[in-house]
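Example noted here:
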Amino acid sequence: MSEERNLKDLREVAEQQIEARISLAAPLPETPEALRHELSVHQIELELQNEELRQSVLQLRQAHERYLGLYDFAPVGYFTLDAGGNIQEANLRAGRLLGVGRPQLLGRRLAQFTAPESRSTLATLLPRLLASRDGLVAELKLQRADGSVFPVRLEGQLHLPGGSLIAVTDVSTEKAAQEELLRLNETLEARVVERTAKIRELGDELRTVAVAVAEDLLAPLRRVGAFAELLRRAVSAVPDVPVQHFDALFRSVERIEELARALLEYNQASSMRARLIPLDLNRVFSELHKELRPQMTGRDVHLTSAALPTVTADSRTMQLIFLKLLENALKFSATRERVNIHVGAEETGTEYILSFEDNGVGFNNRHRDKLFQVFKRLHPESAFPGTGIGLAVVRRAATRFGGRVWAEGRQGEGATFFVAWPKHPNVLE
């Protein structure tokens, strides 16, 4: 009895739902013609929807074919692995890299195609890959079906839950280029060492020859001067014999002696022993200030300095640098009524920049590279006598310890010479 009542209740609920749906639906056409028209419209709508669906399916098929083309013919081998490292999918490039057909790859473990020395690397990489969302990159070696081994760059990322996508790039050419570059570097280093030794040997020979020539010149020059003086005294008593040519001869002899001594001084700056110690430059300046007083006598000279640093240097080398630069400033300020020479210093992370500024005749900045060359001059010897080697000595002395020198000036407005001295100098032979 209760079952019949339940069935009756369910029937009533169903009828109520049908009536509700009918009341909400659009009214049915009242005539057969209207019904046929409505059916035709629905048929056309269905055909249009079917055409749109066919186009969507075609586009999806084309996109899938393009994806397969890109996947198969990519220049990189692609593998899809499951959690156990078994190959689920692979592109054509992957098969070509390993020398087997794609069907023979599927279902096999990637470790089977890994060189023995790289299997532990792969075994460590795969669990890490499954636990990482950022992907991993590693280099290892794979083994082809014919047993040949080649290096690859392996890039992996999590693909599906419990699986991973592996991209494999053959880096044989890159590794061969690196090995060739290393071999060339080793060869180049050996050649550089050989050339450096040869240059050092030639430099030593040149210095030896220069010193020998300079020293051998001095003794004959002294004898020439002495004999010329005797000759002048002998002929001076003879009437109508000109003796003014002897003055030119004496000047030439003195000039050659100056150049020979200058050459010896330059070579000495290149070869004298060096002892690096903490050196207070204020003390160096003070000592040279006293030494240069004879050259400042009778002139209005103001020789000043800022607070100078304590540097690591060879005492004789630094005194030589200061002496040559201060003498140069005094010489080219000789035409000034009031001479101002100032020594300053700045500090950088790696160097101390020393500056020697004067208000002398200056020079044309276009020719400043000639200043530090041996026997090169920017001013005539008749106006400013000298050998033209003092600044070359400064450059050689500074560069021997890894320092740098340069100058800035303007004609008629003075000049500033700079010495960049390293905080950690090394003696360069």
